[in-house]
Automatic annotation (TrEMBL):
<feature type="binding site">
    <location>
        <position position="66"/>
    </location>
    <ligand>
        <name>Ca(2+) 1</name>
    </ligand>
</feature>
<feature type="disulfide bond">
    <location>
        <begin position="119"/>
        <end position="318"/>
    </location>
</feature>
<dbReference type="GO" id="GO:0048511">
    <property type="term" value="P:rhythmic process"/>
</dbReference>
<keyword id="KW-0964">Secreted</keyword>
<feature type="disulfide bond">
    <location>
        <begin position="34"/>
        <end position="113"/>
    </location>
</feature>
<keyword id="KW-0408">Iron</keyword>
<dbReference type="GO" id="GO:0006979">
    <property type="term" value="P:response to oxidative stress"/>
</dbReference>
<keyword id="KW-0325">Glycoprotein</keyword>
<dbReference type="GO" id="GO:0042744">
    <property type="term" value="P:hydrogen peroxide catabolic process"/>
</dbReference>
<feature type="signal peptide">
    <location>
        <begin position="1"/>
        <end position="23"/>
    </location>
</feature>
<dbReference type="GO" id="GO:0020037">
    <property type="term" value="F:heme binding"/>
</dbReference>
<feature type="active site" description="Proton acceptor">
    <location>
        <position position="65"/>
    </location>
</feature>
<dbReference type="InterPro" id="IPR010255">
    <property type="entry name" value="Haem_peroxidase_sf"/>
</dbReference>
<feature type="binding site">
    <location>
        <position position="245"/>
    </location>
    <ligand>
        <name>Ca(2+) 2</name>
    </ligand>
</feature>
<keyword id="KW-0560">Oxidoreductase</keyword>
<feature type="binding site" description="axial binding residue">
    <location>
        <position position="192"/>
    </location>
    <ligand>
        <name>heme b</name>
    </ligand>
</feature>
<feature type="binding site">
    <location>
        <position position="250"/>
    </location>
    <ligand>
        <name>Ca(2+) 2</name>
    </ligand>
</feature>
């Protein structure tokens, strides 16, 4: 009996060692090591929003671009240095900005708890708090405990991040590959309700002829926003995804695409494809339902293949590996 009990205790010890080395995400991971971590991030996101409103949109886009490429591991934030080629160099990262403000959040955390809070968790939690600033749902159950990658995946970005011209089937396949179902995918695409699209990614629907799936009056508006078939990618030539509530995470996006007023090809396909159209119609009619599914989608996205335990590191500066 004593031997059996001793063996059982040994198993518990071995399990604990294994768990520490290869942990899982959990709610309030920093409750002991940095109790104020989530509040510090929230306050920094709020302060940055009131100084630079579009940062909230950037935090949301960062989550998608980081998590879809291999893992939610802050590889997106790495700059080209020390043998690392930044994912930000990819054409798929066109128009992304505000990376410099991540350092403000990280510096505040380092001051409170040095080398404790990962950049990957900053990506996840800043997205959560940015959504609130955009009047989207308050998502309380975002887990933490991610570790940061020790490298980037520039060579995989073009394959894994959907192109602005990709088909709905391609996008659904991408999300399905990381465990996100069709309903949650439709909700996540509702992030198109905020932000904007550069004319570089629009003109193929306007020139030489107007895409017949576009509402004619809306197409004329877009041609005013994008008067040339060859826009300068460095010029300020954009159209808002949502003209009515451009800085709100709400269901106006779905109302727009049902009226053929979506900017991208996938927007139109989303509203007409039988796999997604019922969800679009339901979200267009019920903002609460959209927020519920959007919250679920963000949670799923934020938990994509995270590095935990000793699988990664906690960077001191999100721009560089330690």
């Amino acid at each position: 009996m004593a031997k059996a009990f001793a063996f059982f205790c040994l198993l518990i010890q071995l399990f604990s060692i294994f768990h520490i080395g290869n942990g899982e995400l959990e709610l309030n991971y920093y409750k002991t090591s940095c109790p104020n971590a989530e509040e510090i991030i929230r306050k920094q996101v709020e302060t940055l929003y009131y100084k630079h409103g579009n940062t909230a949109v950037s935090w949301l886009r960062n989550l998608f671009h980081d998590c879809v490429v291999k893992s939610c591991d802050a590889s997106l934030l790495l700059e080209t240095a020390r043998g690392v080629e930044s994912e930000q160099k990819s054409t798929r990262s066109f128009g992304m900005r505000n990376f410099k403000y991540v350092k403000i959040i990280k510096d505040a955390l380092e001051k409170e708890c040095p080398s404790t809070v990962s950049c990957a968790d900053i990506v996840a939690l800043s997205a959560r708090d940015g959504i609130v600033m955009l009047k989207g749902p308050k998502i309380d159950d975002i887990k933490t405990g991610r570790k940061d990658s020790r490298g980037s995946y520039l060579g995989d970005v073009e394959t894994l991040i959907p192109n602005h011209n990709d088909s709905l089937s391609s996008v659904l396949t991408t999300f399905d590959s990381i465990g996100i179902d069709v309903e949650a995918t439709v909700a996540l695409l509702g992030a198109h309700s905020v932000g904007r699209v550069h004319c570089v990614n629009l003109v193929h629907r306007l020139y030489p002829t107007i895409d017949p799936t576009l509402d004619p009056n809306y197409a004329l508006y877009l041609k005013k926003r994008c008067p040339s078939p060859n826009p300068d990618p460095n010029a300020v030539l954009y159209s808002r995804n949502d003209r009515e509530t451009p800085m709100l995470v709400d269901n106006m996006y779905y109302k727009n695409i049902m009226a053929h007023k979506g900017l991208l090809v996938i927007d139109d396909e989303l509203a007409t494809d039988p796999r997604t159209a019922p969800f679009v119609a339901k979200m267009a009619g019920d903002n609460g339902y959209f927020h519920e599914q959007f919250s679920r989608g963000v949670r799923l996205l934020s938990e994509t293949n995270p590095l935990t335990g000793d699988q990664g590191e906690v960077r001191k500066d999100c721009r560089y590996v330690n």
